[in-house]
Amino acid sequence: MATVTFSASSLSTPPKPHFPKPSKTLIHPPRRLSSFSNPNFNLKTLNPILSRSPAPVRLSNTTSDLIAYENSVPSRSLKSRLHNGETLYGFFLLSFSPTLAEIAGLAGYDFVVVDMEHGHGGVSDALPCLRALAATRTPAILRLPESCPTWAKKALDLGPQGIMFPMIDSPKLAKKAVSYCRFPPAGVRGSAHTLVRASSYGINAGYLSNYEEELLIMCQVESEEAVKKVEDIATVDGVDCIQMGPLDLSASMGYLWDPGNKKVREMMKTAEKGVLGTKKNAREGAYLAGFAMPHDSPDDLRSRGYHMVSGTVDLGLFRSAVVEDVKKFKAGLKKASDNEKENAKEDDEKYWSE
To answer: Per mean pLDDT, which range of 10-24, 99-113, 290-304, 318-332 is the poorest?
Structure first.
């Protein structure tokens, strides 16, 4: 058997560790990967994360997800961007897929609406989506299944930047919606602010001082009755946005299968005019928000004064992509089959001519 021996000096005197001289620049930007060399491909959140080593958590006093990297610049809130006159472009998430939420955030949408009204999921399903969006620094808005204090309380405790109340047909309902978002004595929201995610589980000491200023409250106007009272709804204290609902509005008018009907479009314009007329300044009145439709593009909405435009829905995008993919493949099969038949015919004619 081979014997391994060590000199006495090697055992008694371990080698002196070598530490490289620290650089004056502690943070080095990552090398640009060739796959990301296209200047039109903007991963808005990867660079700040990849270019910094994790540091102690620094919590900002906002109602939603907090940036957990020192020296990171937190995104401005949706409300502050609206007050600055920006037009925001968003996306609706009905699949409750955290992966799709993350992709939407990385793509550059200004906000993502996690839809608990028409999507299959509830609060437990929404939470992973909010976490995925937080990783991309993309504000989340939760749309409630119905306007009630219980749903509002559970949604707000998750810490979204915005909350959307469906079927607000009167100023009275709008005032109730706002009250569901306020702690007593200003409202009726139940309090567990020392424990819930909205306050970073109680770590964010400034939550109670800032939550009203940061939270975006959106009321949906989606019936003839609501349109008649739209100005009064838009001027309720605490209502930040009026979200138009063209599909439900068309249904309430008897045009369920024809949301582009001339009468529906006229009703929409009446509502839009009413909301825009309330916006005297950045702090007074409500902003106009809406969905793009096949007959009403995002650019059309923007040109009419909408400051929040939702361009598409995840399930709609996926549906269109897979239908087109299958159609393209089957068209290729048919073309190949037709070519084979034509070649067989030519071969047959050639055989008999010989």
So the answer is: 10-24
Q: Which two tokens stand for residue 333?
A: 């099969």
Looking at the DSSP bridge assignments, the partners of residue 115 are 143
Q: Which two three-digit tokens encode residue 163?
A: 């909350």
How does residue 62 score in pLDDT terms, banded at 50, 70 and 90? low
Distances (CA, A) of 339 to 239, 256, 327, 342, 346: 63, 45, 18, 5, 11
Cis peptide before 185 (omega within 30 of 0): yes
Greater confidence (301 vs 38) lies with 301
Please check the confidence at residue 73 and state whether its pLDDT lies above 50.
no
Catalytic residue numbers, as ranges = 118
What SS3 string covers 323-344?
HHHHHHHHHHHHHHHHHHHHHH
The half-sphere exposure of 148 on its side-chain side, counting CA atoms within 13 A, is 5
- How far is it, in rounded angstroms, from Cα 293 to Cα 351? 58
Q: Please, what sign has the CA dihedral across residues 227, 231, 232, 233?
A: positive
Question: Is the whole model's pTM more than 0.85, yes or no?
Answer: no
Element (H, E) at 123: helix 123-135
Report DSSP letters for 13-63, one per residue. SPPPP--PPPPS----PPPPPGGG--TT---TTHHHHHTS---S----S-S
